[in-house]
Amino acid sequence: MKRFTTILALLLAVVAQSASAQTLKAVKDRGMLNCGANGSLAGFGLPDAQGKWTGLDVDFCRAIAAAVLNDAEKVKYVPLSAKDRFTALQSGEVDVLARNTTWTSSRDTSLGLNFTGVNYYDGQGFMVRKSLKVNSALELNGASVCVQQGTTTELNLADYFGANKMQLKTVTFASSNEAVKAYDAGRCDAYTTDASALYAERLRVATPDDHIILPEIISKEPLGPAVRHGDDQWFDIVKWTLFAMMNAEELNISTKNLDEALKSTNPEIKRFVGTEGNFGEQLGLTKEWAVRIVKQVGNYGESFERNVGLGSPLKIERGLNKLWTKGGIQYAPPIR
Amino acid sequence: MSTDLPASARPAPVIFYNDPRVRSIAYQVALCAVVAFLVYGAASNAIENLARARIASGFGFWDQIAGFDISQTLIEYSSRGSTYGRAFWVGLLNTLLVAGIGIVFATILGFAIGISRLSSNWLLAKVAGCYVELIRNLPLLLQLLFWYNAVLKTLPDIRDSISIGWGIFLNNRGLFLPTPIFKHGFGGAEIALFVGIAGGVAYRIWARRQQERTGRQAPVLWVTLALVIGLPLATFIVSGAPLSFEFPQAGRFNITGGSEVLPEFVALLFGLSVYTAAFIAEVVRAGILAVSRGQTEAAFSLGLRPGPTLRLIVVPQAMRVIIPPLTSQYLNLTKNSSLAVAIGYPDLVQVFTGTVLNQTGQAVEVVAITMLVYLVISLVTSLLMNVYNSRMALRER
Ligand SMILES: N[C@@H](CCC(=O)N[C@@H](CS)C(=O)NCC(=O)O)C(=O)O
Q: Within 6 Å (CB) of ligand 1, which residues are found?
């Protein structure tokens, strides 16, 4: 079983490995980025019938590969379940975890991870059958709720029902697949997960129109990529890959106008595309690192629109995920 | 012949390092030292690496609040008030529950099928044969998913529950039963039950002695039933039926009150029993075939009917062949119960190696504890089976 090999790999890794991992060198030698992704969540990480992966998190891994290996296609995606994902990162099975993972204090500290930013501000919601005639999560007293194991969702659910003095029957599954199937078969009254994922999962039930998503958002779920503790250089590269995508959008640099940007005299843009300064070298990459990201993957806004936004089947509003200049809270530190 | 040998013919005393006994002890000590060194080296390296990556280690997590819910808890448990340690016990008890009941079911079914397969009834033997071939050759995980979906899909939705009467409901969220509430004075019936059981055992021993002495058979079954069921029942009625029930009630979403049997549990129990029974059937068949045909013929010629022949002559001898492989089937069933994770049954692996590991990130500790638990369960099971085996073993008279 996959899970068992992961754990075994971790045990071997902690037992045998000694010097701190030089992830950048390892990735370059391998010529391939190992990316821990979601294997079944439309909009974030999902392979199609031809085995081509798409999603917001997938784009992020492609951006790292573009910056480091100059080829966004040089990514090996490792589909991970919610509960196995941290073990896979700790053990070195993946170089980066980009799998709609909520940034929490315990994950950032005692689990040995470093979160590199937030690529999607989310919150937890509920989906119920229309026929129940429930309009608010506060009416769910006594309900059975299907949930996926190894998630913040599992914890928030218990908190929310406890805080509102409501009774709850949780049914916990290892994969969202089984959880959604059980919900669809009537095993539970409600299914709960991150709101973004609810829109994706609703498309998987037999008759999506018979289900509604309740208005309450019961938690903060800042989703972001993470790396292992102990390799600061790699941490910086992954972090600045995300910031580069956001800064590109802020500076209005996209796949369409990249050539103009290369000729720009605007000092901010010059620093971004590498015609001024040596910011790429400081990261351990080359001058055009950010250009490669935009050229091969696009800026944050482009990636958002085609994967989860109005240009995708999910049609999610950008809301909080707009840039700070446009009324949202996405804000990247400057390149200088 | 004299045993005294002249001094020159006695073997010369060997130098100690050539003494095979000393040598073998030395080798064993050396091996132990090497193993201990490797274990120590691995452990200290692991601790150092975990510390360098600043991953939490140690068993401090045991007393931290768990914060997640579990759908089936045999002991008191709440997400806000219980610890990871408590969650471990909840998971372990759920594993033991499904494994224990599964072993009983699989044994009964397995013996029935194994014997049927040797039946002279053509149809019965063929059906049993097909069962074994079909079940043995399909992956267990697939079967569990099949049973789970069969349970969920065939049973009605909660709002169209099947009412069986006496407050019993059946739907795709489980089987809901009234919970008995024992009132003051119920103790009398409990005492009567123990008296009844003791009496039943005593009667059996007496009946057996009498049969050995005189050949007369006593109506053991009926007397035992009367003692074990009749006596407590009579006491219960005489003491004024001190028992009431809490009945399941239909709420807005769920049936509340009473006790419930989860569909995940039923599917897992069913899947494990059906699967393991196929292997036990083969073990039983092999055991019976190992008893020479002459034994049966001898029994027949003494005038025994097929039933008693099987029960008194064939099965006791077959048991000696059956028990060792049966033990490994029991161990398999227990270990296979960890596939519960696929269908949402909260067994040890699902709760502890799943959620607890994920939340604490302490893979080394959690996996070590889990392995230890399965090891202990396995050792205890085989110990019990070995005791049983030595009691069944051929006694030379
Ligand atoms: N953001 C939450 C939940 C993430 C999560 O795993 N969500 C589920 C529910 S949609 C999921 O992505 N499942 C897909 C899968 O496991 O295949 C966390 O980090 O704990």
A: A 38-41, 81-82, 100-102, 148, 151-153, 175-176, 193-194, 197, 201, 221, 223
Strand A226-228 to A113-115 pairing: antiparallel
Distance in angstroms (rounded) separating the CA atoms of residues B247 and B180: 9
Question: Could you tell me the CA-to-CA distances from A42 to A182, A203, A289 in Å, in that order?
Answer: 19, 9, 28
Compute CA distances B50 → A19, A105, A173, whole Å.
12, 18, 29
A25: which 2 tokens? 């060198």
Q: Report the residue of B77, B152, B171, B341 to disrupt the A interface, i.e. the one with the largest count of A CBs within 10 Å.
A: B341
Helix%, strand%, coil% for chain B, nearest 5: 70, 5, 25
Enumerate the residues of chain B whose CB falls inside 8 A of the CB of residue A230.
52-54
Q: Are B87 and B357 in contact (CB under 8 A)?
A: no
A155-165 confidence digits (pLDDT tens): 999 999 999 99
Ligand 1 center to residue A153 CA distance, Å? 8
Residue linked to tokens 């998630």:
A151
Structure-block tokens of residue A268: 């901010």
Amino acid, res. B319? M
The mean per-residue pLDDT over the stretch A105-120 comes to 95
The rounded distance, in Å, linking the Cα atoms of B363 and B358 is 8
Q: How confident is the model at residue A3 (pLDDT cuts 50, 70, 90)?
A: low
Residue type, A69: L
CA atoms within 13 A on the CB side of A197: 31
Q: Which domains does chain A have, with CATH numbers?
A: 18-121+223-326 (3.40.190.10), 126-219 (3.40.190.10)
Name the pLDDT band for B396 (thresholds 50, 70, 90): low
Question: Within the 236-295 window of chain B, which residues sit less than 8 Å (CB to CB) from chain A?
Answer: 251-254, 256, 263-264
Lowest mean pLDDT among B2-16, B174-188, B305-319: B2-16
Shortest-distance atom of ligand 1 to CA A102: 19
Q: Which two tokens stand for residue B260?
A: 């419930």
Q: Are A192 and A126 in contact (CB under 8 A)?
A: yes
Q: Cα–Cα distance between A182 and A147 in angstroms, integer?
A: 10
- Please name the helix (run of DSSP H) or strand (run of DSSP E) that holds residue B7, with its range, or none: none
The interface predicted TM-score of the complex, written ipTM, equals 0.83
Q: Are strands A143-148 and A168-173 parallel, antiparallel or unpaired?
A: parallel
Task: Say what the alpha-carbon torsion angle A74, A76, A82, A87 is, to the nearest 10 degrees.
Answer: -110
Q: Which of A170, A173, A186 comes nearest B157 by C-beta?
A: A186
CA distances from A306 to A51, A119, A301, B191, B361 (A): 18, 15, 9, 73, 34
Locate B53 and state its tokens.
């990556």
Tokens representing B304 are 């025994």
The C-alpha atoms of residue A240 and residue A172 are separated, in whole angstroms, by: 36
Distance separating alpha carbons of residues A21 and A156, to the nearest angstrom: 34
CA A221 to CA A101: how far, in whole Å? 8
Distance CA A135, CA A213 (A): 9
- Predicted confidence at residue A16, as pLDDT, reads 47
Closest ligand 1 atom, residue A150 Cα: 20
Whole-number Å distance between alpha carbons of B334 and A307? 44
Asked: is B84-138+264-392 a CATH 2.60.120.1440 domain? The reply is: no
How is residue A26 written in tokens? 């390892």
Q: Which pLDDT value is given to residue B9?
A: 60
Instruction: Provide the token pair at B210.
Output: 């009498």
| Phi, psi angle pair for B174, to nearest 5° | 130, -175
| Inter-chain CB proximity A171 and B264 less than 8 Å | yes
- Interatomic CA distance for residues B55 and A87, integer angstroms: 11
pTM: 0.83
Instruction: Give the range with max mean pLDDT: A13-22, B49-58, B74-83, B236-245.
Output: B74-83
Q: pLDDT tens digits, residue range B95-117? A: 999 999 999 999 999 999 999 99
